[in-house]
Every structure is written in C-alpha cells, then in structure tokens.
Design a protein that fits this description.
Oligomer: homodimer
CATH topology of one domain in chain A: Jelly Rolls
CATH architecture of one domain in chain A: Sandwich
Shape of chain A: globular
Largest sheet of chain A: 6 strands, antiparallel
Largest interface: A-B, 34 and 35 residues
Order of helices and strands of chain A: HEEEEEHEHHHHHH
Low-confidence stretches of chain A: none
CATH superfamily of one domain in chain A: Jelly Rolls
Distance between the termini of chain A: 46 Å
Amino acid sequence: MISGIFKDISFSQKEITQIESKFEKLTLKKGDTLLNAGKTVNHQYFINSGCLRTYFVDNSAKDHIIQFAIKDWWISDYTAFFTSSKAIMTIDCIQDASVCRISKVDMESLYIEIPRLETFFRKKMEGAFAGFQKRIIGNLSQSTKEKYSSFISTYPNIEQSVKNYHIASYLGVTTETLSRVRKKLVQK
Amino acid sequence: MISGIFKDISFSQKEITQIESKFEKLTLKKGDTLLNAGKTVNHQYFINSGCLRTYFVDNSAKDHIIQFAIKDWWISDYTAFFTSSKAIMTIDCIQDASVCRISKVDMESLYIEIPRLETFFRKKMEGAFAGFQKRIIGNLSQSTKEKYSSFISTYPNIEQSVKNYHIASYLGVTTETLSRVRKKLVQK
DNA sequence: CGCGACGTTGATTTGCCTCAACGATTGTGG
DNA sequence: CCACAATCGTTGAGGCAAATCAACGTCGCG
C-alpha cells in the first residue's frame, strides 16, 4: 500500500505492519484543500500520486508557494506540526492525488516502539533542512533568470505538473515577469 | 563547561560526562575562520560566547549571510555536515568567541549510546527547520522595511553584536538601501 | 594626527511590478 | 459539434523600489 514510504531503510514485516496500521489513505481531487491556515496540524502526509502545494497567504492576499510535493514526497505545515501551533500555511491539491496521512501522536508512539524510525525521520528532516537552506541561498544570490533555470533543472518532474503561475509564485515573481524571463531563455 | 548545551533535557551525571568527553573547546578571535567553503565538514559547533556568521559567496564574489549565531546557538554548514559533502558556506567569527565542537562520528555514536540524545537533536532540528521556513516566507512576502523590522524584533540580541552591513547582507539588500530604510523608520 | 572602517546621502540606472489589452488553448452547454 | 466563456500565457506602457556609482561625514585607533 504505502510501499514507497520506507524504501530507504529495511524494516521487518512485523514493523511494517505496525507502521502501516497507523496510516490512513486519502483521495483528493484537484482544488481540494488538505490543510487550512489557522487550523491545528495533527498530521503529515505522504504522496502516492498527484501533486500538492503548500502556500502562505500574506496581508495583501497574495499567495506564495513554499513547496510542491509529488510522488514519494512528504508534506505538511511542519512548523505547526512540530510546535503544535496553528498552521500559517494552506495545502491544496493541484493535480488529482492519492496521499497517506499519519498523526503526530502515532508518529511519536512509533518512535518509541521502533527507534530506527526516529533515525529514519531525522535523516529525512536533515535532507529537507538542506533543501530549505539551498533555497535561501538561491533567494539571496540569484537573479530571477537563474532562479527559474535552477528550478527547472532541480525539479524537472514538478515542472510538468504545475502551471507557470505556480512556478512564478514559488519563485516570488509575477506571471508577467516569468513569461518575459522564459522568452529570453528560449531566444538564447 | 558546556552547561548551556543540554539544559532543555535532563541527563544523568554519567551521561553528561559521556557527552562532554566528546566535546572540544575552541577560542576564536574576531576575523578567525572556523570552517571554509570547499572543505569537508566534520563538526558542528556550540557557541558559549561571542558571535559568528555563516555566509555564502556567490559567483560575483558577493557574500550572503545565511545565519548568525550567538550564545547557546549551534552552527555549522549543516547541508554539508549531514550529507558528507563539501561545504558551500564559510563560517567566521565577527566577535571574539568561545565555542565547543563535536564531530559527526562522535555524534552518531552518542546517538546509539544515548537514544534520548537523538530525540533532543531531532527536536532541535525541527526548530531550526521551522526557522528556515519562516525566513523563506519572509523573503517571499515582506518588503525590505518589514524584513528589517522583523529581524530587529526577532533577534534583538544579535542586532547588538553585528554591523549594519552584516544585517544588510542577511536581509539581501545593499548597505545603502538598509541605511535609507533605517532613516525612514526613525522618522516615523 | 592621519588613516581606515563604517554609515549616510545624492544622482542615475535597472529590474520588476502594475495595469491593461490581447491571442491561444481548454472546457462547457446548447 | 460548434459557439462561447473561462483560463492561461504573452506583450506593451508607465511607475517604483532597489542597485549602482560616487562622494562625503564621522568615529575609533595606531
């Protein structure tokens, strides 16, 4: 069922059964909201198929995409999930999706029952941490053109699943600017 | 000696001795480099006193400060530390400092000897992760004026320890722009 | 004292945003 | 199956915020 989740590490059949019993499968249609800003965040989600986005809505009602998630990725408002505070971000589905969710409580109890799972998630978190750090570096040091090129080469699979205005939001520019940048890149 | 490090969690005297034996104390002068871009990263560092900065140097030889660290903070090029790759950032001392370092190898062995330590660092990592996420949101959604105000109110202790051009680098603007922003804020 | 480090101010340029209009494509109901 | 609307991307004109380039005031220190 959730075969992709723990492919990086080997667990016994008993452990896998134990872990899988805590997961719940959800089916989402394009446009469905998985998690709303302002709500308590009790779950994290693993994507089996489809595409989702996490975004932040600012004071001017503009939304800013923080991350995309496709097959085999995890997603949540982790800030809220970790600190047991209210979500500041919203997650919705931008391409029909199948996801599996697990609650924070179940997560913590699994950590105690299966310590290797904590190691697994620590390493996963380390990878996500590194990704965020790279994004901050890119934000600070790259031009819009460079940011777009980096995005395309770093996430070729995601690029196929999302609209250009989603990419613009992720990069922090308007759709017009992205359009002009794309034009220049093609001309070269 | 490294009293501040584990104040959030209680360990036995034996465990503390075990942990402390893996740490090594270093004294740094302003301008000293702790970690160089391009080198392998084998340690992470805990700050007892003083102030350090992690920064990235881009193609145009401009540097971009990714984070500051003062008393009780941890610092390293975590991306390189976690993935065992070469550092892409440099860390140096901007105010005379005392730090304690621990190697990655010792860290991993301590995780096995004292599982609660892994929980401790996982939670620390979760906090840092949340911080980075907030920074990305700020970068995408705030004006320069707002970013500066947020910085000052979020890190009042750091603001006292660093030059304005360090803050400008952290915010991703020139010193001239920061100067003008500061002027406008005072006038109000 | 004289020098370098730091911050400020002004003039000009540049990149992006905003507003507006308009093709192209997709989807939908008659 | 076609007509029409909605969605999406593109293009142009004008304005604004920040970068750039340059000069200068101030402070601390050898």
